[in-house]
């Protein structure tokens, strides 16, 4: 019953969501909304990876954070989404190279660590959807989804492209980004943008899965 409306939209393709296996790296302002969207859309075999705990500063943008201050994020989210699998670990470059991603249909990257992000791209580009910088922005209508080499207007994205070229990486993968200029120097954030990044990532994941 709870998925009747999306079944009307996707028809027989809905079964592709139910049979999908996803790993989501990072469940902060972007990742938490992506997770909620996927669960509500019928994707249930989801593994989330994060190491952080909720604090008061998360409450302007992170799903459920106001209910779980001081708690480990992945453990708190498990209470709301019982079907998920959780891994409580810091995602760094070495962890990415050591982890086996083979069993997953899609790898969703919603982390900020540059070196880890580069390793994810190099290792998982064939099934990767990655999020660029969503902080310091106010306008969600500037958000786009395209391949890594077509992104523009994003200093963080420019750095990622530069570092990938240095490594001789020329493959394509999908990226959620915004061309909006930063509104402040500090890392301020606005839920309308960060949440929209997560929803755009979920949409790209759903559309990718039903094409398979």
Q: What's the structural blueprint in terms of helices and strands?
A:
Blueprint: H1 4-10, H2 14-18, E1 21-25, H3 31-40, E2 45-50, H4 73-80, E3 85-88, H5 93-98, E4 106-109, H6 114-124, E5 128-131, E6 143-147, H7 155-166, E7 174-178, H8 191-211
Parallel strand pairs: 1-2, 1-4, 2-3, 4-5, 5-7
Antiparallel strand pairs: 6-7
Description:
This protein has 212 residues and is an alpha/beta fold. The protein has a single domain (4-132, 191-211), classed as 3-Layer(aba) Sandwich (Rossmann fold), CATH 3.40.50.720. The protein is built from 8 helices and 7 strands. It has helices spanning 4-10, 14-18, 31-40, 73-80, 93-98, 114-124, 155-166, 191-211, and strands at residues 21-25, 45-50, 85-88, 106-109, 128-131, 143-147, 174-178. Strands 3-2-1-4-5-7-6 form a 7-stranded mixed beta sheet, sandwiched between helices. α3 links the parallel β1 and β2 (45-50). α3 crosses α8. The protein is globular. It starts with a helix and ends with a helix.
End-to-end Cα distance: 25 Å
β content, as a range? 15-25%
Any idea what the radius of gyration is? 16 Å
Assembly state of the chains shown: single chain
Main-sheet strand order equals 3-2-1-4-5-7-6
What overall form do the CA principal axes indicate?
Answer: globular
Short description:
The chain has 212 residues and is α/β, with parallel strands linked by helices.
Key structural traits:
single chain; 212 residues; seven-stranded mixed sheet; 8 helices; 38% helix
